[in-house]
Design a protein that fits this description.
This protein is α/β, with parallel strands linked by helices. It folds into 4 domains: 11-43 and 150-222, no CATH class; 49-144, Nucleic acid-binding proteins (OB fold (Dihydrolipoamide Acetyltransferase, E2P), Beta Barrel), CATH 2.40.50; 262-454, Rossmann fold (3-Layer(aba) Sandwich), CATH 3.40.50.300; 464-621, 3-Layer(aba) Sandwich (Rossmann fold). It is built from 26 helices and 21 strands. The strands form 4 sheets. It has a 7-stranded parallel beta sheet. Strands 16-21-20-17-19-18 form a 6-stranded parallel beta sheet, sandwiched between helices. Strands 2-3-4-6-5 form a 5-stranded mixed barrel. Residues 188-196, 643-648 and 693-698 have low confidence and may be disordered. Bound molecules: adenosine-5'-diphosphate (ADP) and magnesium ion (MG). Residues 274, 276-277, 280, 303, 305-311, 434, 458, 561, 563, 592 line the site of adenosine-5'-diphosphate.
Amino acid sequence: MASQPLDQLPVTDLRGVGSQLAEKLAKLNIHTVQDVLFHLPLRYMDRTRVTPIGALQPYGDVVVEGEVRGCDIALGRRRSLVCKIQDRTGVLTLRFFHFSAAQKDNLKTGSRLRCFGEVRPGANGLEMYHPEYQHLDNTAPAPLAHHLTPVYPATDGVTQQRLRRIAEQALARVDNGLAELLPTGLMGSDAPGARGDRLSLSAALRFLHRPPADTSLDQLMAGQHPSQQRLAFEELVAHHLSLLQLRQKAQQVPAPVLPLSETLDRQFRDVLPFALTAAQERVVGDIVNDLQKPLPMLRLVQGDVGSGKTVVAALAALCAVGNGWQAAIMAPTEILAEQHRHNFESWLKPLNIRMAWLTGRLKGKAREMQMQAIAEGSAQIVVGTHALFQEDVQFHRLGLTIIDEQHRFGVHQRLALREKGDEGLTAHQLIMTATPIPRTLAMSAYADLDVSVIDELPPGRTPVNTVAVSQLRRSDVIERVRGACADGRQAYWVCTLIEESEALEAQAAEATAAELHLTLPELRIGLVHGRLKPAQKEQVMGEFKAGKLDLLVATTVIEVGVDVPNASLMVIENPERLGLAQLHQLRGRVGRGRQESHCVLLYGQQLSQQSKARIRIMRETSDGFVIAERDLELRGPGEVLGTRQTGDLQFRIADLQRDAHLLSGVRRTAHRVLDEAPEKVAPLVRRWLGENARFANA
Ligand code: ADP
Ligand code: MG
């Protein structure tokens, strides 16, 4: 029994774990004995030694010993029992909000105590609230702990003591039943950056559940201990493998071979009012190269706002069309889909390419007609929103799907699109995002994708001049808008999200629009927000684009992709409410024409340090990649990738930023496991992604 693999032993196999406790443990994602081992402490308490009172730091959990100097009831906002203890180095206040008279009597001046608890700053020096304590006068003190005391993530009805007891039992079995899934050879040679590279998995786990007394808590809390790095490495390998698996799976079914015809290419470039930038050419080259192969393309194009991704998408679509296959391009909003349709039509109509159009707004007869054109193949290119991928849409020889502004779609949605192939072939996939992702992150988040970067803006852009202005000078800003519009330019006034509520945000935008109507009566002012019907939204956007409006008051719905070159001033109200990436996206709406553009960050009164830092970065740089790096530092990967909601890229131990130095080793190791020990892939993915191993069976 001892040798049964721990990933197959139910947790009820441990002593004292019945079905009731098992149910509660399931809430912590603990189902097997192996899961117990991977349920790692959040933090540790040091009960192995006595800390001199003079050396205490706020927020540490410590053991102290001292003599009671006095004990009184303090009446303040909340009645409490206050007891002062002293050792040779200092005085500490113990504070109890719940206490009995007997307890007070028991804490006699002159008696000696050993206390354990968390140190906090108080009004007069350091305090401990409700410490556990023990009298040292008569009884012999219990021995101090031999190792650091783990504090596990817990849940209702599962105490720390319980978790410690079951961890103890699981650890006793670790040598017999826990498979080492990264062959030592792989680990040793491939993870020079991993300081845990020589540790066995069981040694690492044993250490982390029961760190010896002399372990540096700082190192542990920073996640820098070799044992943690050993586990982080394995976890990252598991994640990487899950994505590689996904890629392998996606590429099992071949794709149509779609070489770009020279004639079409030439015709297209003749129509285009500009020449491609070197960066665009390079990325088109990558795509054309992919599409010539019978293997489905899985490529992500990253390009800052305004870098010209649409034309790259159009060239990719031409590859499909030229070979008698259909291409579908999906945008995240109606407005963007509309813009793509407009661009594609102006570039491709002269080449006699037929297009269809499908969004959620399209109903009845009009929808029927578009659906029919798509199904019969009379439409060669289909433009739309996610409505394109509803069950009832039938494509005709779909050879390529293009997804614009990828960060709005989760891995799931990306996968769903793969099922729309035809003739036993998979469609190629091109994904475009305007959210620059730091390289290290991209490699992990998109291990299933090849990545191309458009790292150059089209010529003739003047950088946006960004200033920060306090709300106290709101009227100056309004005058600025008046001036710009009097010169025939257009402006945006962006109202930012209030407490995540679209309704409130819309209200704020309405109020601002009303205010600006009053103060700027000579201007033609439009309003868009998320509460408008798509048709209304589009009408306003259309008018702004056509120059029939001077000023557009908007919520962050205009964030992505909208292209109005004559707009050269943007006011962003309360920019402190937005992340850097979002600010950068918004600002990308201006600076698209020849005239100099300005962005005014109209901030509220009280700026946090982080908001100040963000505003400073916005003023200093317009490089999306630099901004993304800084965003990552300030907010962490979940926010930067927009995956917090989708749950992609949530790690138990690894931290993409902290462990960035591991990533190149992770990639190599993952590939080698795939090649040399493919039977290890499934158990590794299961061990680390558990129930979330959706990638594997998606
Ligand atoms: P994004 O990458 O943000 O989607 P777009 O594709 O909307 O950028 O392009 C932004 C603007 O730049 C559009 O007006 C487009 O026509 C123009 N553009 C794209 N490529 C070039 C180029 N090589 N030279 C000049 N203008 C270009
Ligand atoms: Mg775009």
